[in-house]
Amino acid sequence: MSSEIPPRKIQLARRLRREQTIYEKNLWDILRAHKMSGYHFRRQHPIGPYVADFACIAAKLIIELDGNSHDDRQDYDANRDFVLREWGWEILRFPNVYARDQPDELWRTVEVELRTRIPMQVDIVASLI
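Predicted structure:
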């Protein structure tokens, strides 16, 4: 994977951060609430030629919220996910409304994946409580 991010992708990521949807804001609030658990996410994070909705760098975990705009992009999304997985990332996709209607279930799903990807960090945090 090339570590160089095209300048237009950086500009796109900045614009997407400023213009986040209500669903992205809901998920960002969930992820920030769990930051004290030792998980740090970035929103609208450029990775190569792509921009991930949310990414935990330490776990190489991407969370994507899919709305209506993804209905016509299934092939693109599948190819993108394939490439990102080749680079070692895992991608969790949720429908937009999941962040609003089932935030606790969404976090539990994310946390399970985080624990499988960075178990030592979770054990250290748990021992501090």
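Summary: The helical segments are 7-18, 22-33, 74-86, 96-101, 103-117, 119-128.
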